[in-house]
Design brief:
The structure is a single chain. The chain is globular and about 65 Å long. Strands 1-12-11-10-9-8-7-2 form an 8-stranded parallel β-sheet. Strands 3-4-5-6 form a 4-stranded antiparallel β-sheet, with no helix packed on it. The chain folds into 2 domains: 306 residues, TIM Barrel; 35 residues, no CATH class. The protein has 352 residues and is α/β, with parallel strands linked by helices. The model has no long low-confidence stretch (mean pLDDT 95). A hairpin with a 5-residue loop joins strand 4 and strand 5. Helix 7 packs across helix 8 and helix 13 packs parallel to helix 14. It contains 14 helices and 12 strands.
Length: 352
């Protein structure tokens, strides 16, 4: 099977030739791989490690035409980002400090218009063709109404809104959901990705629980999710998958009700377990992930790595499961990831 055939067979809950793989590699991990494995220059790490899924991304931000640098000094760069927030980026840091947002008071929502979803500039870096030769299974991506609303309003402000003013939080989440739904449909069209579909990225959980109550999710975000999935599938998308870090298990019944076909990364450190969830939901949901990148891959023994991988592989034999650890950072030894990869490729073959 090609990667595309393998992944779509799995998502249809049928047995593929082998378990599909989906991981993303940090630049620091990739650098270690090239050095320790003595890989030739130009080696594609995703091809080397048999990654089956590729994600292509348009600019889904609310205000790309307003992005600008405001000032720069030794403390950092202050800018207005394309979500409308004023932020400071300090030298040598990954995350930014939020200084102000475009929606300071709730009446601001009535006067704000998002930039058009159809701007050609949004799709300048959207290049599915770069993956065609690899035969990977290509999906386009949007964000989701929780995290993208937080980008516009400010995360702390938006969490307060969810708890204290759910009507306003829903109004913003609805605006955001409709905006990114249009970008998702346009991505499907421009990439001709109807026969695969869309990944929605919307981190909604901590390691312990969702970042909102199930009641808040149902009232504020579920209507937007239903509209997004209906829009994507109505446009012709074969599958709609949800990426969310953390423990989103209390929301899964509603996520399934919204029409989501698969979840990722199914984090063990957040208490999620593929065999248990698969036994509970049957063919209502597929799973992409399940491998622990917090404890098992960074510091586990080879036996522990193989044991966890075996558990996922056994769950995948009838379809509905792809294996992955999502984010492979420099804390994971190359020898551990290589052992995991080789074990999966040897034992995850379902033919014969």
């Amino acid at each position: 099977m090609t990667s595309k055939e393998r992944v779509m067979t799995m998502l249809n809950h049928q047995k593929p030739d082998r378990i599909p793989k989906f991981d993303g590699f940090w630049a620091e991990f990739a650098e270690k791989c090239f050095k320790e494995l003595n890989l030739p220059a130009g080696t594609n790490l995703e091809d080397y490690f048999c990654i089956d899924i590729a994600i292509v991304v348009a600019d889904e931000t609310a205000f790309p035409t307003r992005a600008r640098t405001i000032s720069q000094d030794s403390i950092g760069i202050i800018s207005q980002n394309s979500w409308g927030c004023i932020v400071r980026n300090r030298p040598g840091t990954y995350f930014y400090e939020e200084l102000d947002t475009i929606i300071r008071k709730k009446s601001d929502l009535d006067r704000i218009e998002f930039d058009s979803p159809y701007l050609d500039s949004r799709y300048g870096g959207f290049n599915p063709e770069s993956f065609r030769n690899s035969k990977r299974c290509i999906f386009c991506k949007t964000g989701g109404p929780f995290l993208r609303s937080a980008h516009v309003r400010g995360k702390q402000n938006f969490l307060y809104d969810i708890a204290g003013d759910p009507e306003f939080a829903k109004a913003l989440a609805d605006r955001v959901a409709d905006h990114i739904a249009e970008i998702g449909k346009e991505s499907l069209r421009r990439g001709d990705l109807y026969d695969t579909g869309v990944f929605i990225y919307d981190d909604m959980g901590s390691n312990l629980q969702p970042l909102m109550s199930p009641n808040s999710f149902e009232k504020i975000f579920l209507p937007g999710y239903r509209r997004m999935v209906k829009a994507f599938k109505g446009a012709g998308a074969a599958k709609v998958c949800l990426h969310s870090d953390g423990n989103i298990e209390p929301l899964l019944d509603m996520i399934i009700d919204a029409g989501i076909d698969a979840i990722n990364p199914v984090e063990p450190k957040a208490g999620l377990n593929i065999p248990r969830l698969k036994a509970k939901y049957g063919k209502k949901l597929a799973y992409i992930g399940g491998m622990c990148n917090a404890h098992v891959l960074p510091s586990g023994t080879f036996e522990e790595i193989e044991s966890k991988a075996r558990e996922i592989i056994e769950s995948a034999m009838g379809g509905g499961v792809a294996i992955g650890a999502h984010s492979i950072g420099p804390d994971i030894p190359v020898k551990n990831y290589l052992r995991y990869h080789e074990f999966v490729m040897k034992n995850g073959n379902f033919e014969g």
